[in-house]
Amino acid sequence: MPKIKPRVPMGEQPPLQRIKNFKSVPYGYTEDEAVEEAERCIQCKKPKCEPACPVNIGIKEMNLLIAQRKFKEAYLLVKDDNTFPACSGRVCPQEKQCEGDCILKKFDEPIAIGKLEAFIADWGTQHKVEVEEIIANNEDKHVAIVGSGPAGLACAAECRKYGYAVTIYETLHKAGGVLQYGIPEFRLPKDIVDDEVKKLEDMGVKIKLNHTVGQNIYYYELVSQNDAVFLAMGAGAPKFMGIQGENPLDGVYSSNEFLIRANLMKAYKFPEWDTPIDVGKKVAVLGAGNVAMDAARTALRLGAEEVHIIYRRTKEYAPAREEELHHALEEGIIFHELVNPIRFHGNDDGFIDYMELVKMELIEDKKGKLNPTPVEGSNFYMGIDTVIEALGTVPNRLFLDRAPEIKKDKRGVIIVDENHMTSVEGTFAGGDAASGAATVIKALGEGKNAAKSIHAYISSLDD
Ligand code: FAD
Ligand code: SF4
């Protein structure tokens, strides 16, 4: 094994500067930095990085092309496998996927695959590289897609390539799903999401915003007007602690509401945008996933003096991406391990005032699983101005309750077969709506695969 050079670090805004703005934290690789990083790839005969990518990007070839400064070719290669590389390069949990399986990890740091993917995606956009999509002629067949998150967008792109007339119905006033309303600007700039959506519209995909399927247009209408329907409504309904004081008190948010106000309704641009959020001085965020980190880092940027992560396990079990946790701690977010709130107390004005918590310990059960368990008599109090609950999400029931013929499990997750078809012939589902809350790249992969099944299904109707 030749001596491996260290990974090329990516420049980023220093913590004390970035907590005062919503601009992207990393600056992105320059061409020279990207070439130097791509040159570290040893071009494995059997690259383990590729099968570990849910959309099987040709990572080895991408690295080679970047190392040879063939940026346009690298961009076209990546775009062929993944419709939204600028997004996935920035938000994928690479350490658990491609980079987790990169051979270099055994000797040194793995190739920065995500950062190279984001670099090449941005390079293609900045240089206005045209992707010549070959669109078949099938416009007399129609596909309706519910939801414009990564699953819906990826399915739309592929269905369009098969030539179908594709319409996406989106309940919000902007397309992109969580990429638009959940993940903050400092992690995923919204002009990138808007640009990806525009490319799709340029391909001929129609997007009907402010259209809630199940409310102002019904599922049966979509079925009767289309040859196939793809359900990609995500899992946007928040879970709550269900503890005393939670419901009537002001200042207790679900992470969804908080992030929608901050991102989609641009609360951070108040008063230019008419969405005030007063987080006060001390904020507690419950949970330790990506959503919790996003909420905590957003609260800090909205002016909180102290932001506390409250987690019932230890830091090593935190489900957040490694980089998000690292950035959050660097920014001064205070992480409390092995604690859990049991009651919220309000002041006379009906606002949250303080929380009652218990200490937790991890106790091994018969199967060897470590379960967080309250330590008796360990109750303590924490004064707080705002609480944000980031405890996970489940699919929204609004649509599902009005389409009882679509089978779902106890959590409300749509049941699909290996072809992504639901219990109703011709209706397919993918992304968080059909798997429960997961990842952007999984949603993109499922959208793409579902499109193949939709194509096979529509083609079979002609036989
Ligand atoms: P969504 O992105 O949820 O999109 C569903 C869309 O459907 C939404 O736009 C919604 O408005 C619309 N919709 C819902 N119901 C209807 C209806 N009845 N009619 C019309 N439209 C409807 N994953 C990662 O890989 N990395 C990360 O760093 C990461 N960070 C995250 C941070 C946050 C704050 C959140 C909330 C999630 C994060 N995730 C992350 C998870 C990831 O974003 C999701 O797994 C992914 O977006 C799922 O895609 P989707 O297309 O299935 O659904
Ligand atoms: Fe390159 Fe790592 Fe993939 Fe091997 S596993 S081809 S070193 S990125």
Assembly state here?
single chain
Strand content: 15-25%
Distance between the termini: 56 Å
The average pLDDT is 94
How many helix segments? 17
What is the number of independent domains? 3
Q: Can you give the helix content as a percent range?
A: 25-40%
| Chemical compounds bound to the protein | flavin-adenine dinucleotide, iron/sulfur cluster
Provide the spatial order of strands within the biggest beta sheet: 3-2-1-4-16
The computed structural class is alpha/beta
Largest sheet: 5 strands, parallel
The CATH topology assignment of the largest domain is: FAD/NAD(P)-binding domain
Question: Please, could you describe this protein's structure?
Answer:
With 463 residues, the protein is an alpha/beta fold. The chain has three domains: 112 residues, Orthogonal Bundle (Fumarate Reductase Iron-sulfur Protein, Chain B, domain 2); 165 residues, FAD/NAD(P)-binding domain, CATH 3.50.50.60; 152 residues, FAD/NAD(P)-binding domain (3-Layer(bba) Sandwich), CATH 3.50.50. It contains 17 helices and 16 strands. It has a five-stranded parallel beta sheet, with helices on both faces. Strands 6-14-7-8-9 form a five-stranded parallel beta sheet. Helix 13 links the parallel strand 7 and strand 8. Helix 2 runs antiparallel to helix 7 and helix 5 packs antiparallel against helix 7. The protein starts with 14 loop residues before the first helix and ends with a helix. It binds flavin-adenine dinucleotide and iron/sulfur cluster. The site of iron/sulfur cluster has 15 residues, from helix 3.
